[in-house]
Amino acid sequence: MKVLGISGSLRNLRFGKGSDLLVSEIKKIATKDNLLEYLKEQGNLCLSLFIESGRKMGKPFNQLYEKLKKTGGNYGLSNSEIALATGLWGVNQNGVDIEHVSLTEFLERNQNKTVGREQILQRVQEADGILVSGPVYFGDRSSLIYDFLRLLKLEPQIVKNKVYAGIAVGAKRNGGQETTLIYQMMDFINIGMIAVGNDLNTTAQYGGTGVAGDVGTMANDSIGLETAIGTGNRIGDVVNLISTAGKLHLKDKPRIGVFILQDCEETALRKIKNVVEKYEIFNKADFKFFHLPKEKINRCIACDNCPAFIDDDEVYNCINQRKDDLFKKIHKEIIGLDGILLGGYSTNDFTKIYSVYQTFIERTRYLRRSDYQFSNLLVAPLVVEEVTSRENLSIRIITSMIRHHTIMFRPLVLQLKDGQEITENLFVADLCSYIELAGSITAGRILKYASKLVKKTYNPYGYTLRSSRDMEQSTIEKKQKVMENRKHRFEAMLEKRVEGHQ
After folding, report:
1. CB neighbours of 277 closer than 8 A, spacing ≥ 6?
2. Is the peptide bond before 307 cis (omega within 30 degrees of 0)?
3. Residue 395: per-residue pLDDT
4. Residue 234 lies in a domain
5. 463 in any annotated domain
6. Distance spanning both ends of the chain, measured CA to CA
7. Rounded-to-integer distance, Cα 247 and Cα 284, Å
8. Quick check: pTM over 0.85?
9. Distance from CA of residue 67 to its chain's centroid?
10. Exposure check for the chain: N or C terminus, fewer CB within 10 A?
C-alpha cells in the first residue's frame, strides 16, 4: 500500500534525491511534537534560502526565483510542502508507505518533458492513492496541478478507483482553500478516482486547509497542520480499508439506497428503474428505492445539542419526533444500507418539480452527529438531467455528503434531450462500476468495524453546549456502550455476509 504525495507549487524546494530524503525524514518522526519541530526547522531553512537568494538585497522576485530553482533540492520546505509533509506523516502513521514528487521537477524543470510526463504517470500508476498539496490562486488550484490533471485525463485508466485527497494553502484563513479543494476534488472524481476529505478529529471537511501569508510560515498554523494530519489519516485509513477489501467477498449483494429527492411526474424514478431492469442491474445489487419528493420532512432547527439523546445506531435520536416525519419512519432502513445514491431529476422548468432535496440534506445532520452513521459508505450523486439544466446538483450533493465521513464516487448522470436518454451507455457503465466497488468496500468496512472497537466520535468544535455534554462522565459511558454495540452489530454481519475474513 502506498500514497504518492504531489507537490503542486512552483516554489517547491524538494525534488530528485531531495524527494527521497524528505520521505526518509518523515518516516523517522515518531511524535507530533517532533513533527512540529521538524516543520519549523524546514520552514526556517526555506526562509533562509529566500534571503540568501536575494531577498535581503531587495532583488526582484523573478531574479530571486531563478536563483532558487538552482538550489540542490535537498533541504527546506515551501509552505505547500510543509502541508504535504504533514499529511504524509499522517498517512505513514496508518501503516501506509509514502512517496513524494514535485510537479516542478516533472512538468517544469525537466528538459525532456515527454520523459518527465512518463515518469510521473508511472509513479501514479504504482500508487494506491494520491495526496495533492498546492497553493490557492483566486479560489482555485495552481496551473501546475491543472497541467497534472490534464495529463491524467489522457491516461484515466491508471487512476480508476484510486483514492484522492487534497490540501490547499492560502494567505489567510478564509482565502479560498475550501473552493480550491472542492473544484480539485470534482476534477479528480470526474477522471475516475474516489475522494475523501479529512478525518473525524478535524470534523470531516473537504481536506487540509493551511494558512501561510509569508515564506515558511505554514509551520506556525496549528489548525491547518491538524487538518493536514487529518487528511493524511483519512486517505491512509481508506487505502488500508480498500486493500483489506480486495481479499474479501460479500456472500450477498450490496444493499444500495436510491434516494430520489426531487422529481417531475416520476421522471427520475421511471428512467432509473427502466435502466436497472433493461440491463438486469438488479442482479448485481439489492436496490431500495426511496422516492421522496412529496414526503413530509420537517426542517432541521439546528440544535446545539444534536443529537437529542445518545442511543444505539438503530434508534432514531433526532429531536423531531413527529410521527409523520420521514426520518422517523425510515431511520432503520437507512442504517442498514451499504451504499447511497442520491439525487433526482434536474431541469430548468420548475413549474412541476417537487423537491425535498435541501430539507433532506439538512436533516441528515443528526446522522452525522451520531458519530458518523454513514462513515465509509460509498456515495454518489444520481442525477437524471435535461441537457439544458444549470442546477449543479451533483456538485452540491458531493460537497454535502463528503462531510458525513463518506467515500465519494463520481456523479452518475443520465442526460436527456427532449425526454430521450443520450448518455445511457456511460450511465450504465458508471452504475455497474459503482456497485462493484460498493460491494468490495462494504466487505472491508464490515471487517474493519467488527475487528476492533473503532472510536468514531463527532468533534463538536464551536458548539459549547454539545461540548459540555460530551465531557460529562455519563455521556462518555453511553458513547462507549454505543460503540461496543456497533461493533457487535458488525460482528454479526461479518459472519453472515463476508467470505475470506478468517
Report:
1. none
2. yes
3. 96
4. yes
5. no
6. 21
7. 19
8. yes
9. 37
10. C
